[in-house]
Write a structure and sequence with these properties.
Layout: E1 8-9, E2 18-20, H1 61-73, H2 80-97, H3 110-124, H4 129-150, H5 163-170, E3 173-180, E4 185-188, E5 191-195, E6 199-205, E7 215-225, H6 230-233, E8 240-249, H7 253-256, E9 258-262, E10 266-270, E11 275-280, E12 286-294, H8 298-303, E13 332-339, E14 344-353, E15 364-370, E16 379-380, E17 386-390, E18 395-399, E19 401-409, E20 415-424, E21 426-427, E22 441-447, E23 451-460, E24 465-476, H9 477-484
Antiparallel strand pairs: 1-14, 2-5, 3-4, 3-7, 5-6, 6-12, 7-8, 9-10, 10-11, 11-12, 13-14, 13-19, 15-24, 16-24, 17-18, 19-20, 21-22, 22-23, 23-24
Length: about 500
């Protein structure tokens, strides 16, 4: 439940964590990375309700089974006859699932016509062509279905409002790969997912983590299956495509990283880009790994990269305006979520944020969402902030720590600055100077290359509540100038 206070608050229910299996990359079976390109509106077509074979690929189950089997049992060096047999199998699979673009046979017998098509196609195409063509077509079918789901946009967040359904339809999941100093990889696939309004929090836990001292890197991948209906079956078998999202260096982890919180059993070490490593206090070994991924361009980052290269976001083209003297300084909208993976503490929207030219200082624009001076906009949190975690044996909750999801939209409702990251609440040494709030003050600070967030909270002992009394965003003038084509 949410109350209306300051910004526009709405009811934001937390969903229980769901166990999800992930998929390793397509490179494991020697497949090339599929030629993905971001799909725009022109690439999305309405679902064909006539259930054509192109919209819902089906085919001879024996042929499909034989083709899939050949993915794994294909020897590295094959006689030419075997190449022809495999190409024939994949052509049969392709023809049974997708209607040909043109008819090239003219004989009366249906059987003779099919053989004629096969012979012509086998002679015209190089070995492996129909295998690749089949897989890429299947990817296109899934992609089209997913793009239909992510097309509707939530007016509050400016983000797709059916992200969970789209993830399920595509079979998208995430894995982490830990690499030790001798080059051995340890893949962690099982994960718990927790979906929020603007992000998904992923937690990996196991009883078989490698020793922290031998590890050199941790890589985060988005993973999708390459064959039809593999996502529905929930199987980890079959060819899969990996898309690198982030890579972290684990050498001297405890010395170089920031600790964001701790409880009796674990301490949380923050790397960057929303990833936290939970370390056992006693052994200083990995207990769990947690990350929070913002929905903005999450599908692109999770599917359009390769196993070695992250997806490069397309450059933003500024929409110039030579009429408005304060272009880029006003009409921002902020959607803020504060949650602890399983519980939501605040879910609010703040409209019409602005910055005066005189308030631009130290290369930052200042946007005030909640002001100390206006107590009518001060916001209560629901519950006591804490970040919940779990392993196969233990569960816990790190107090004074939470995940902050920020979605800032520009004046036309386009996502301008988005992130999801774990943050902590630090006890301030100063006392509250507000008449209505007499209690301890806590502050939260977040900063990246695009901006900063400052939150000030007061703890009311009488009602056992936290109130946000100050919420300010600072936007980098470089980010603003690059986005709007201005020169502040």
């Amino acid at each position: 439940m949410a109350t209306e206070c300051g910004g526009h608050l709405r009811e934001c229910g937390a969903e229980p964590a769901v166990g999800v299996a992930a998929f390793p990359g397509a490179s494991e079976v020697g497949l090339p990375s599929p030629p993905f390109t971001p799909a725009g509106p022109s690439a999305v077509r309405p679902r064909n309700r006539s259930k054509s074979s192109a919209a819902r690929p089906q085919g001879d189950s024996r042929a499909v089974h034989a083709g899939i089997k050949s993915l794994y049992l294909t020897p590295s060096i094959k006689p030419e006859s075997n190449l022809g047999i495999e190409s024939g199998i994949w052509l049969k699979i392709y023809s049974s699932c997708f209607q040909p673009k043109k008819t090239i046979w003219k004989m009366k017998s249906e059987q003779t016509e099919t053989v004629s098509l096969g012979c012509a196609a086998l002679h015209e195409r190089e070995p492996g062509y129909w295998k690749k063509e089949y897989i890429f077509k299947q990817i296109a079918v899934v992609k089209s279905r997913v793009m239909q789901l992510v097309k509707p946009v939530d007016p509050y967040t400016g983000l797709p409002c059916k992200n969970k359904e789209a993830m399920k339809a595509s079979g998208l999941s995430w894995i982490i790969v830990l690499k030790d100093k001798i080059g051995k990889e340890h893949v962690m696939e099982e994960a718990n997912l927790s979906f929020k309004d603007t992000s998904v929090t992923i937690l990996w836990h196991s009883t078989d983590w490698p020793c922290l001292d031998i590890l050199s890197t941790l890589k985060l991948f988005g993973v999708i299956p390459l064959l039809p209906d593999q996502s529905r079956a929930g199987s980890k078998n079959g060819p899969r495509h990996r898309s690198l999202i982030a890579e972290y260096r684990l050498a001297n982890l405890t010395e170089k990283s920031v600790e964001v919180g701790a409880d009796k059993l674990v301490r949380l070490v923050y790397l960057n880009s929303g990833l936290v490593v939970g370390l056992w206090k006693v052994k200083n070994e990995i207990a769990f790994v947690m990350t929070s991924l913002h929905y903005h361009q999450l599908f692109e980052r999770s599917t359009l990269g390769s196993a070695t290269v992250k997806y490069a976001l397309p450059p933003h083209k500024p929409l110039l305006d030579d009429v408005d003297p304060e272009y880029g300084l006003h009409d921002y909208s902020l959607h803020l979520d504060m949650h602890g993976r399983s519980c939501t503490y605040l879910c609010g929207t703040f409209k019409s944020l602005f910055c005066r030219k005189d308030d631009i200082a130290d290369e930052y624009l200042k946007l005030t969402a909640v002001s100390l001076k206006d107590n009518t906009k001060h916001l209560p949190l629901i519950g006591t902030p804490g970040l919940s975690w779990e392993t196969d044996v233990f569960k816990g909750n790190v107090k004074d720590c939470y995940v902050m999801d920020v979605t800032l939209l520009d004046e036309i409702g386009k996502p301008f600055w988005c992130f999801s990251a774990p943050v902590c609440m630090d006890l301030s040494s100063k006392a509250s100077g507000l008449y209505d709030y007499m209690g301890h003050i806590y502050t939260t600070d977040y900063a990246d290359s695009e901006g900063k967030v400052y939150v000030e909270l007061v703890w009311l002992e009488e009602t056992k509540e936290y109130f946000i009394v100050n919420l300010v965003l600072y936007l980098s003038t470089k980010k603003v100038n690059d986005w709007f084509g201005t020169n502040y």
